[in-house]
Amino acid sequence: MPSNAEPIVQHLRQEFEPVLADVTGPEAGAQTAYSVELTLFRQLLGLGATLLRRFCVSRAAERPPAPVPAPDGPRLTYHDCRAITYYSIFGNVRLARHSFAAPGHPGCPPLDAALSLPERCYSDLLREWAAFGTADQSYRESQTGLEWIVGRPLSLQAIEPGVGEDAGDVTAFYARPPAPDAPVPLGAILVVQAAGKGVPQAQALATGSRERLGKGEKRSTKKEAVVTSRYRLAPYPCTPQDVVAALLQDPRPPEPATRPRPVAKEVHATLDGKTVALTRLQQRGPAWGGGAPPRRGGAAPRAPPPPGPRGPPPAAPQVGGGP
């Protein structure tokens, strides 16, 4: 397939000239920071669409070799170029991919796996932004916020299925152990926290129920959500000078040391009750190296006294003079 990358590059250069003129031309002196910032953002989204189209055309220009079939699968031969519409944060990009097929086989474009294209037409980044908004907002609010940012409409039917598909990976995601190669060494202090919060839950109305509730009646009930967290933290030493400066409110206190930051922090929430939450928290112990958590301040546990014959306890020393 011939590459159309060169016309796209020329078009990209033509699009960049107005962007540069908006910030360097004579009209820039009458613009406000808000108007320039908003205009630049919209123009950069357009440039991003052109660059993404250039990338897709470049990757799809070369015909890839035929995929290696499975041991019991059919041999795939070249069929045609199949076009799809890729919905990104920059807009819609039309992408034609070389496809291989066999009798009774739906077809296989190798470029889909090479670019890690999603099964549906919406890009992973667009789905990630939409799912991030629905974590604490409704679908409608997330849709409105996303449309306000990217300046393009997005239907609710595009958000709801994606969130439902991503929800199936939540349990496996949180079950993963922490990364073995932490960016900083784990602290000596293990911090474990737990808290409960009532979550309102709407109840389905029974057939023939009253539209108006009586005194003290509620249509919704609350169920406790238990949130647990655990992380490692290095000790934060405090000198006597720091204590004195804090108590006396010294206007020129000594320069404080850099406070350690939590390392490998994990936060989990469940509606299955406290027992399930604490059990899952305890099961995460092997992922943190196993064993009992270290003592406060990182001090090693005190060694037991050496074995020996038991004798009478030593007499307590007397305080003051005797008769």
* Strand residues, percent: 15-25%
Q: Name the helicity range.
A: 25-40%
Structural class: alpha+beta
| Biggest beta-sheet profile | 3 strands, antiparallel
User: How many helices?
Assistant: 9
Question: What average pLDDT do the residues reach?
Answer: 77
How do the SSEs run, as a string of H and E? HHEEHHHHHEEHEH
* Cross-sheet strand order for the largest sheet: 3-4-5
Briefly summarize what is shown.
The chain is of the alpha+beta class and 323 residues long.
List the helices and strands and how they pair.
Elements lengths: L4 H20 L8 H29 L15 E12 L2 E11 L8 H5 L9 H11 L4 H12 L5 H12 L2 H5 L14 E14 L17 E14 L6 H8 L15 E8 L3 H10 L40
Helix pairs in contact: 1-2, 4-5, 4-6
Task: Name the features.
323 residues, alpha+beta, 3-stranded antiparallel beta sheet, two-stranded antiparallel sheet
Question: Explain this structure to me?
Answer:
35% of the residues lie in helices and 18% in strands. The strands form two sheets. The protein has a three-stranded antiparallel β-sheet with strand order 3-4-5, covered by helices on one side. Strands 1-2 form a two-stranded antiparallel ribbon. Helix 1 runs antiparallel to helix 2 and helix 4 packs across helix 5. The protein is α+β, with helices and mostly antiparallel strands. Strand 1 and strand 2 form a beta hairpin. The termini are far apart. The C terminus is likely disordered.
